[in-house]
Each structure stands twice: as C-alpha cells, then as structure tokens.
Write a structure and sequence with these properties.
Six copies of one chain form a homohexamer. Chain A is mainly alpha-helical and 133 residues long. Chain A folds into two domains: 56 residues, AhpD-like (Up-down Bundle); 47 residues, no CATH class. In chain A, 65% of the residues lie in helices and 0% in strands. Chain A is built from six helices and no strands. In chain A, helix 1 runs parallel beside helix 3, helix 4 runs antiparallel to helix 5 and helix 4 crosses helix 6. Chain A is elongated and about 55 Å long. Chains in contact: A-B, A-C, A-D, A-E, A-F, B-C, B-D, B-E, B-F, C-D, C-E, C-F, D-E, D-F, E-F.
C-alpha cells in the first residue's frame, strides 16, 4: 500500500491537471501512472520531476530504447520492483523482446559481479578514460 | 593498494598464462588489466570469470557499445571507481563521446532518483511487462 | 513470510520479556513490532540492538522527528519496505504530514540522483568540511 | 581524475554562463563546484539539474539545514565521497556542529543496520503509515 | 509476477534440458528453481551462469555452508527477497539453525552500520591487509 | 581527509579513555583505529557502538574468522574501502590466506550477480526457509 493517498487522475487542481494532461499527451496514453499520482501530493515536486524527466528522456545521441534499457539496468541494480516493471514495459513498447532483455540482464548481472570483486581486491583505476582537452 | 599481490603479467603458470594470452588476443591489447591479475591469485576463479565474461560480452541483439554503456550505468550506480573508469575507456574505444556519456549519466541519475522516490512512496507495480505466452 | 518463527509477545523468557516490557514502556505502546519479535530468537542480539537503539534514538541536538525523517531517508535509499513503512508511521506520530514527507522524498530523490552522476563523472572532493582543530 | 574535462568557470558559452552566474548569485559564492563544471559538458542536463535542485532545495516545511542533513544521510548510505564532503560543508555553513554530525551519523548507522536485519528476517510491514483519505 | 514466461521444467530444448538435468543431478533435487527457468529464456546465459556457479559453489578451503552463509550476507545487504529465502533454505539443508542465522544477521547488521558510519566520517584505510610478496 | 578531527589516542577524557583502554585490552593491540577515534567525538555513540560490537563479535556458533569473512562480504558489497581493508587484515590475523580470500570474493561476486538478475526477472520466492514451529 502506498504511503500517501494517490491523487485522483481526474483532479481539478489546475497545476496537477496541467502536468497529468501533458503526460497523457506526450506519451499518448489515457491514464497516469501511480508514480505521478503520488508525486502530485506535492505539486512543486510533480512539476519539477516531470520537467526534468521530459528533458532527459527525449531522443538525443542515445535513442529512447537505449535510455529505457539503461533505466532497467539501474532499476535492477537498485532492486526496485515498480521501476523494473514499468521500464521493461516501456522498453517492450519500443521494441525490446525477450532475447534483448536476456542479454541486458546478463550484462547487468556480470558487472554487478565484477564491481564487487573489484571492491574486495581494492583495485585502483589502471585504465583511465580519454578526457578531451 | 590492492589487497593481494597482483600476479605478474609474464607469469609462467600455464593456466593463468593461457587466460592472459586469450585476453590479449581477444581484446587485441598488449597488457592485462589489474582486474585479471588480481583474479589470477585464484586460477579457477580467473578461468571461470573470463569464460563467463567472454560469453556475455560478445555482440548479440545488443551491440558491444550498448553493453559497455550498461556496464557504466551499473558501475556508476554502485559507485565503483575502477569499474567506471575502465568501462568508460572501453566505451570510448567503441565510439562513445562526451555528449553520449552526458546523456547516459543523465539517464542514470534520473532513474536513481525516481527509484528512491518510488521506495519512499512504496508504490506497487501498476504497469506489468508483456510476458510472452 | 518471515524466515524465523517470531517469538510470542507474551513469552515468559525472562530476558526477552524484560526487553519487550521496556519497549512497551519506553514507547508507550501495547504491542511489540515484528522486528523485535524476530530479534528475540537471539536474546543477546535483541538486548544489544535495543540498548543501542535506545541510546541513539533519544532527543539530543537533533530532535526525534528529525531522527525519524533521517531513518526514512536511509530506508528509502536502501529500498526496505518494512522500514519505510514503520519509520513513516513513527514520524507521523511525531507530527510529519504529507507535505513534509513530500519534501523529504524530494530531497532523498535529488541526492540519490546527484550521488550517481558524481560517481559517473568520478569527481574528487573539491569542498572539504571544516574540521575543528 | 574526472572522466570529462571540466568546463572552465569563465566559459563564454551563454547557456552555461547563465547557469554558473545563477549558481553564484543564489548561493552567494565566487566559484562554481566541479559538479556543475562536469554537468556543463551537457548544457541541457546542467540547466535541468540546476532548475530541479533549486526547486527542491529551498526552505519549505523542512528548513535548509534539515535538507542538507538528509543529503548527508543519503550520501553516506551511498558511500559517495565527493557528496559527503560537500554536503557536510554546506550543513556546517548552516550551523551543523560536530555534535550534530555525530548524532546524524549515529542515526544513519543504526538504520542501515536495522534495514539489513529486516531483510535477513524477511519481515513484512506490520505498521502502516496513516494515509490521509 | 516474473517479467518473462518461465521455461517449462519439462522442456525438450536440448541445451536447456541438459542444464536442467545437470542441476537436478548435481543438487539431488527433483525440480528446477524459477531462477534457472527464467535464465533458460536465454540458453547461452543459462549455460554460462550454471557453469560459473558450479565452479564457485564447490567445497574448497571454505566449506559449502560457509559459502551459503556468505550468500545470505550478500543477499540481505542487497535486500533481494527471492535470494534471501533460497539461500537460507540451502544453508538450513547444510545444517544452519536459527541460532546460527541469528548470529549471521547480527554480523551483517553490525557491519552495514559501521560501513556507513565510516563513509560519513570519510575515513581512509589505516590498517592495510598483509599482501604476500 | 576525515570529516572530523580524530580524538587523540592519549585523550584524558575519562569516558573515551575507558573505551580506548578496553579496545586495546580486548584486542591485544597498542593503538586504536581511526574508526574509534572518529566515533569518540560523540562519546555516547562510541560507548554504545563498542558495546554492541563486543556483544556481536565474540565466538558463538559461528567462529570469529567466519564472522570476519562475513564482514568482508558486507564491506565489499557496500564498496567501503576502509572497511574492506580493516576486515581483511583482521581475518588474516585469524588465519585467512589468499586462497580463502579468493574463494570468499568469488562467492561475493557470484551472488551479487544472481541477486541483480533475480531483480531484473522479478522472481518471487519459490523456496521458503524452514521456520521452526
């Protein structure tokens, strides 16, 4: 059970309604996820998170499917059930199939393993990124 | 300082040398990273991790650059300095530039934020992935 | 389902009963949470955790509400459902309303985001705390 | 070493300069932290993160010192050195002394402990927050 | 609900069947856990993870019970419910009783606490492991 | 650099001195680690953490070496450098050699991997611990 009462999707609060409408239009969906309905208990936060997410989640040099797969990698590493589910659903709408998910989770698992082995052996960086001058 | 003495790159231990040679050949490099030199203190582990990594890190439905960017996402989420550095260097060799890294880290940051907001509001999955029957 | 059988609230084990009674008295409650009933399977641990918690969770320079909000921040960052729920309930008893929870989770989310961006850019401390000499 | 070349504080890029100037004005400081100089490699991200941070980090029902102490709790839980240092410095400017830091870290440590004990015993929520109807 | 359709235990896919049979034989069990049935959606991954797990989870200088208790420590620290449950069950089969689990979780809790206090105080290593020369 | 001034090992503060003396006696060492010198800035916390640690870190059904290896597993999973170093040093004093460390980190790596794969596939517990009735 959520720790707050979710704001009704048909709220008449003008600030919340404006964000909900923008979510529906931008994503071409008819309902607003619980994440946004929880955030709407704090309209300042709702507006600011939505604005930031819109800014980050548009196609750039990385396409949207790649961005959603990165979201899955982060969410699986953090163990957030709601987040894993919603980002897999979003990636599937953009074309991710079971084989791609399998490869993605294989990479996520592998590097969670090597990350922790590195911490146990306390290795210091020996390969440095190329920093453009 | 590493918590074990790294195995010399020119070791004559046949099992370790075989893996080191395979790493150099597979990656077309002339030296072996400290990660492998630390693992080599336990040759069984060295062989098994390398075999698993080779299996996962080959091109499939996801290309290698995408896989390295997922490795960066995992390593940044875990805060592993050695890992962040080496995977950024690897991704750069495969074509990732500063703009792409910026977009990648924007996505990593965003979803680490939303993951934790979701935990605070204790949201239950409301969008389920499509599971092929 | 818990991984151990919770100890009965009305246990006659004298060491466990003494802690349970102290919990009820200290917190002015009539029942003992499952956390303590699980710990009671190991009375040494029960006594020691309760003693430590009592020592930390008393008003000092930080008031109890602030301490409970910090507990929520930690629990949301760790994604512990039981903990998020119980610490939000405790903070509510001390006066936290939905607006305060919203602000708290906004801060929790924000800095989980910036923490991970910092790891991705591998920034070294450039602002050091003032250390009293 | 950072994984990107930090943008010069005296950059003439108008979008970056506008944000840097706003940071200096808002915080009444003469230099811009490395965090913002790293973000500035991606001006869209710089603008959006700064806008979001400004929105969240203003006094509300929680005062700024409380918000900075929550930032310390999150950063210590995540083990981010840059973040711990900068948020402790910020909290000190707002009045946090060594005693308060000690109490804060005592609470952070305590609930990281109980969070993990709860996960080991797999406890299900038994105290639910009050959700306003 | 799992994010993929689990592969049937009686699958006729020869690669998957070979791994499933080896799991049953190696562990002397009659059914295959959901973990392996999920991995089987990607047979390459299934084979490689099983091979790696078999290599690591055999008695060496550490016995199997110690290895399973370490698995519990990792899983509780990560907060993975499926993993905590299955590793506790495995350790119980190897002789772990409630008292041992209690001691194990006491240690897990304690060092999750001290780890985070250390991060808050930003302590640098002052006791270095002995590295064999 | 630590975020507080470490308390001098030769402090004359009676409460702190009593704990420092007890640490030296209990562990048969001549100096006090920085962890305790940082905690000593808050004597209540110092006393309570030391008392709790002494309670947990005594031989029980699990021996001290096993407990220190669990401490390494937790510290590597959390990526705490100070902690990894000090617990490896402690385990070495109790008899852990490089081979045992290698096996330990192999287990730590393996289950960090499987933990995150499980989260990605969102598996629900299918093997439940035996709970004594």
């Amino acid at each position: 059970m959520a720790t707050v009462k979710l704001v009704d999707e048909n709220t008449t609060d003008p600030r919340v309604k404006a964000v909900f409408d923008d979510i529906k239009t931008t994503r071409n969906v008819t309902r607003v996820n619980d994440f946004w309905r929880a955030l709407a208990t704090n309209p300042d936060h709702l507006e600011s998170v939505w604005r930031h997410l819109k800014s980050v989640m548009r196609p750039g040099k990385l396409d949207l499917l790649t961005k959603e797969m990165i979201a899955i990698a982060v969410s699986a590493t953090n163990g957030c059930a709601y987040c894993v589910n919603s980002h897999i659903a979003a990636a599937q709408k953009l074309g991710m199939d079971t084989q791609m998910l399998g490869e993605l989770l294989a990479v996520v698992g592998l590097f969670n393993m090597t990350n922790k082995i590195v911490e146990g052996y306390q290795l210091q960086p020996d390969v440095l990124p190329h920093v453009e001058s």
